[in-house]
Specification:
The chain has helices at about 5-15, 115-120, and strands spanning about 30, 40-45, 50-60, 65-75, 80-85, 85-90, 95-100, 105-110, 125-135, 145-165, 165-175, 180-185, 185-190, 200. It is mainly beta. It starts with a helix and ends in a 6-residue tail after the last strand.
Length: about 210
């Protein structure tokens, strides 16, 4: 039995040999609660729903960095279930539970589900960027899918709850319709009291 999150990371990497970050689509992610110094993101493949992965990110106190561990879909009495080395994930509707060797954590679907859920969870706040990269997932380990200039407009769709250096990662939409993720330390909004972003008013403009 794996007793610590660090042990999960080491044992998973040793047994699977798979340590590259997984690429994510925009509607198949479950953001999970942190456990100790580790945070989790479950990603279900949009190309092959029988495959999923767990993105495990360690805090800076444990060296930082992220690893991805593959899972395969297994039979479940209800909902959807995936299993892999060190992890079992079971989801039903917009909620899920990720079981690890160090304990279980609750997870919430980060994509679009029903219109009612999307409306209740959406921020839909107009914002501007200080510039930088838009990524395929909420973290520096994800691929760049676009770049924005200082003063570029965007819409903040959701706060992912994934924090980095005091600011959160946001699911955003660009004016041309493209969607992705940008770090809140590069974001500004004239809307009052937007938690998780750097700028509060007097945003840069082109």
């Amino acid at each position: 039995m794996i007793k610590t999150i660090t042990g999960i990371a080491i044992m998973g990497a040793a047994l699977t040999g798979f340590s590259q970050p997984a690429l994510a689509s925009f509607d198949d992610q479950y953001v999970c609660e942190s456990l100790g110094d580790a945070s989790f993101l479950v990603i279900i493949s949009s190309r092959d729903p029988s495959k999923a992965s767990v993105q495990l990110t360690m805090s800076e106190t444990h060296g930082g960095g992220s690893n991805s561990y593959p899972m395969e879909q297994v039979t479940a009495a209800s909902g959807v279930k995936y299993a892999g080395v060190g992890f079992i994930f079971h989801s039903k509707g917009g909620e899920g539970i990720l079981e690890t060797g160090a304990g279980a954590v609750d997870c919430s679907f980060a994509g679009e589900e029903t219109d009612e859920q999307a409306e209740s969870e959406a921020l839909n706040i107009e914002a501007r960027s200080y510039g930088g990269k838009v990524r395929a997932g909420p973290g520096m380990e994800f691929d760049q899918i676009a770049s924005v200039r200082e003063g570029d407009a965007m819409t903040l769709l959701n706060n992912t709850g994934v924090a980095m250096n005091g600011y959160d990662w946001f699911f955003i939409r660009l004016p041309d319709g493209r969607e992705g993720y940008q770090w809140g330390g590069l974001l500004c909004s004239d809307a009052p009291h937007v938690a998780g972003i750097f700028g509060d008013g007097n945003c840069p403009v082109l």
